[in-house]
Every structure is written in structure tokens, then in C-alpha cells.
């Protein structure tokens, strides 16, 4: 039986419910209130508010889509994003919740069923929201939109917003849902249970390989940002003891006092950031915290091993929550800065590079490579691995899944919008000077290139020779504003480097420097003025490293679960599939850290080796993994007997397959873009005998890397094709046999819950009533500190622009 019986006893008079409220309160057989049934409540004021939101959203989209030949304010991007997210969260995500997920708070989640105090440990929904957001938000939402901006802002903003609404957030939420229904099992194990051993083995091997590559790649980006930066090393390093203090404080000293713990962590975090700046300027202390890349690799591997092996509540959850405080706090500061500075967009809606495949930031046509470049901000397969096996083990109630899964992905998409604004509001000439490599500058400059000229002069020559127009239709220029003066040409690039405390900003490819400059531009507008540009620039570099590192520690834990499930399918090693077995946890954690740590160390030691050799395949492999996630979700929806709603995951699945398979085919077979074509070109250069020893060694490395990337691309394509074929076969067989329902899946049977927790970030009036009754009946204090909620509006629907941060309304 999957519903709880009504209570025999009545609530205390001060907690009396109206008849409608009483119908919505979920009780277990002991009469305890354990949840609130979701319901969309409409009133005329709410209808008017949502109508205004929809109208504002439509106007904003019209401005972005139809603006031609005139500059527009970047504030419109914020308006469009926030309105679109609010509507999507309130209506589309809610539709999926009631039609597919059919969440039931009477059913115990894995955290309550197992509750081992280490891996299966419930986390306050606000803390878990932060931990999940920190786990999924790596480098993608920061640098992907910046690189894609070369083709104009319109394709990017369309994919970032519409992609997350209909694909990325749907994938994350539904993966979290199916895992929570299956005892928090990992992606690979669920595939084995639902699609058979063939499908399970395929996706498990795929996952382990892709996760190792992803962790090494993300760690490499973070290390580049932290190397020789005592400020970043100290501030980020201090988040570890701060997290330990927070974890112990909430568990032992003040159980459940989330707001107190948050305040404590925030104060300590600010102190660590300020202290980092002081240490960096101290000639005695700075050398102590100045680590080179190899030292940082060792430190990061040791930390990641500890984070994955220790109990979840002790280090990973509080540290990621702490990171989220900084992330969301910084995003809020950036939003305010954009509104105050009101920067004008310099990039056109669609640039001339959109019709070409030789753009400087990434090669390839708009379709499919723009949708590969913008990964995490719209859709990411790695998110599916986090949403299965990791977060489900800590979620308190099924009705929290929409807020955690869908809501956190919307916040990440908003991060991508901020990054896009940073790229399109600086001078286009500065943007391309930053993101063109030295060889690209030489090629673009043509006859105007001079070996004796400065990098800045050659960059200006290259920009002047490119057929790229600004938003007003004029040839782009290199300009920079500083202290009321507009600089042009090489002088502009020199002044920009001086303002941010760098010797040069030319050829700082990858997007990180572009984001840092844009972020510093926004923050200086109201926090310190022109003189603080260098401070905010270096703060942004640390911010980017923090964004990435919080994904690495969670990714290691995800890889540990995947390796355990993979080994658990081997006879004699089945105990590895039990996440509560501590020896197995240590062994699988060691394997996970050794896999990506080895690739990372090799990449740091050799610019052409290790993870450096596999960076080009990261984007496509990640998006192929997203196809695997959506395929598994589609299988589970069909097997649950919800075939008429299977279009919800199937439509983004078809789109993702079209994008990733096209990209992979081009990277394998295309004579200009393909890895094997590149290998042939390097082979010809080697055979020519015209290379000096240094160039010859580099050519051999490039040849090996091209063959490696080509072979891995073929491997990933074959593996995912086989997995999709297995999934399609299971769906067809299920429909033909008409064997629907939970009894034909690996879904755990109903177990009655005895816990109560609100659904959204802010408890509603009805949830506060139910919580008070729960405390009275159990004779214990609530496990969460909701005192702050008393000062909030009772109706979350009255705050439509905060729609991404509210739960099921009461």
C-alpha cells in the first residue's frame, strides 16, 4: 500500500487545519504528519502576477531576437533568463512532477531506509541543494558560453535557456527521481537492473572512463588557476577545515541548526578570503602558500581521496554547501553589478563566424559544435552521474527532488548567462585578442603580421583583418575604457593588462580570463571603482577555481560508486556493490583517484601528455553520456506504464543524439576537422624531414594524441550506439508485452516514512503547521532550523522571480 492512513488523533488547537489543509497533510499509520501533497493553488492575484511575468518574458525575448543595428542593454538577458526559469520551474517542472514522478512523501527515501550515518545520511534540503549545485557546476557554465559567443549571442542564449528547461534540468531531476526510487543506486547499476547486464556493463565502463577524463580535465583547469597563487591556495585550502567545523557543529554541538551553521561558515569563509589577500601581499608568508603545479596535484589527490572516503556529512556536504554560499553570493553581486553598470552588448545576435567552421575559439559549424561547447550550462551527462548514486542517498523527501534536481540546474544555467554577458559586453576586439592563440593571430593577421612586433600589435592586426562586425554593423575594433579614457589598438590591450595586474592578456585562451575580466568590470562598478579592477580580477580567478574543485571531490565519490557497482557484477566481488562496506569504499576510492590523478600528473609534467591529450574529446563524450542518461530515464518511464509521457525525456534524447553523433562523426571522418585527418597531416610533416629536433618531438606527440583521440571517439560512439540500441529494444519489448508497473522494474517497494521535512527552500504556512504538530507528537525538536521561515511570505507563488528557489506550494 503506497499511501499512509489518516491519524486517529487530532492536532492541537493551535495547529488546527482547515478541511482543505487537512486533506493535503500526509500521515503515516501512527498519525504522524510526514509531508504535504503538492497542489497548484490559483487566485486572481497569482494569475495576474504570472501573466505579467509571461508578458515581460515575451518582451525580453523579442528584444534579444529582433534587435538589429543598435546596442541593447545586458539587463535584458537577466530579465529573459529569470522569467523563463520561473515559468519553467513553476509549470513545466511541476507538470513532470505530477505526471511522471508522482512524488509521495509517505514513501521513505534511501536516506531513511538505510541511514548508515556515512553514505546514506539525510541532509537538510537547503544544504543538499547547495551540495548538489556545487557538485554539478564545474568549468562548463563559466567558459563554454564565452567560447561559443564568437557566433553571436542569440544561438548561445537560446540553447542555454531552452536547453536547460527542456533537456538539462529534466535529465537531472528525473535521474535523481529514478535513483531515489531505487535505493540510491548509481547510473551503471540502474542500467544493469533495468536493461540487463549488457547495457549495464556498457554504460558502467563508459562512465568510469568519461568520469576519469572529466575529473582530470577539471582538476587541470583549477590547478592552472591556483599555481603560484598563494591567495587562491590559502583561501581554497581553508574551506576544508571550515567544512569540518561546520559538519561537526551541526551534527554534535547544535544538531539541525542550519542557519547558525550557515552564519558560522560564512564568517569563516569571508575571513579566509580576506586572509588570503593579506598572505599574498606578505613577502614572508606568501612563499609558504605558493605551490607549483605538481605539488597541487598531490594535494588535490590526497584531498579528493579523503573527501570520497570520509562520511558524507563530515566534509563533502558542508564544504560544497560552503562553496555554494560563495558561488551564489558572487552571482548575486554580479547581477547587481550588471544592473548598476548597465553594460551594452557589443556582439551581434548572429556573427559572420556562425556561417563558417574556422572560428578562433573553437572549430566547427554552429550545428553541432555550439551545442557541444556549451555543455554544463544547458545539458551535461556528468550531472546524471551526480544525480544518481550521490545526491539520492541524502535527500529527505521525494517532494524535494524538483527543487534540488530541476532548481539547481536552473541556477547553473543562470551562471552560464552571466558568463555570456561577460563575453559579449567587452570590446569584440579585446574578446578575440584574448581568445585567439598565437598561431591563430599569425594566420589571421596575414601579411600584416610582424615577428618583431609586440603580441598586442599583432593581435590588433589580426582583429583588423577579420571579417567580423559589431552589433551596429561596423568592423570590430580593439577598445578599452579605463579611468574615463577610451584606449584603442595595442594601447587598449596594454592598458587592460595593466588594469587587471597582468603583463599581457593576449592569447589567454580557454575563456577563464575573459570571464574574470568581465566579472571585474561588473563588480568595480559599485564595489571600489576603477582602482579595484585587479583585485576583482584575481578574485574571479579564485572563484573559477572554487567552482571547479567542488566538482572534482564529488566526481571522485561518483566514480567510486560506479567502480564499486562495476566490480559488484563480477562473481566473487559482489560485495563491492555495497556502499556501506568500508574496505570496498577505500579500495574503489583509491582506484578512482589513481585513475584521474595519474592522467592529471602526466598532463602537468608534459604539456603534450596525460590529460592534455584527451581534452579535445571531453565535450563530445560528456554529451554522449547525457544521451545515455536520457535513454535510461526513457526506459524507466516506459516500464512504469507512463508511455504517453515518454516524450518528455525522449525529445531531448533525440536532439542530443543528433548533435553528438553528428559531432563525433565529423571528428572521426571529416577531412578538415577529423582526428585521423590531423594524424595524416602530422605524419606528412614528420616524413618530410624538415623539422628540427624540438619540432619533431612535438610533432610525434601531436601524432600520438590525434590517434588516441580518434580511437577514443570511435570507442565512445560504438559504446553509446550499443547502449541506445539496448534501451530501444527494452522499450519496444515492454510496449509489446504490456508488462508495466513497479513490479516489472527494480524500484524498491513502498516503505512507510517516519520523517517530516518541507519541500522547498522556504517552508510554507501549512508545512510549518505540520512540522509543529510533528514535533509535538514525537516529543523532539525539529531536525532543521526553520525560524527564518517565520518571517517569510507564506505563499511562495507570490515570488515568481524566485521560482527556481521554491518548492511545491502549499
TrEMBL record:
Gene Ontology biological process terms from the UniProt entry: cellular response to starvation
Pfam families associated with the record: CstA
Residue spans crossing the bilayer: 47-67, 73-92, 132-151, 157-178, 198-223, 229-249, 261-281, 296-316, 328-345, 365-391, 403-426, 534-552, 584-604, 616-638, 645-663, 711-732
Domain CstA N-terminal: start-end pairs: 73-663
A Gene Ontology cellular-component term: plasma membrane
Main location: membrane
Protein name (record): Carbon starvation protein CstA
UniProt organism field: Bifidobacterium anseris
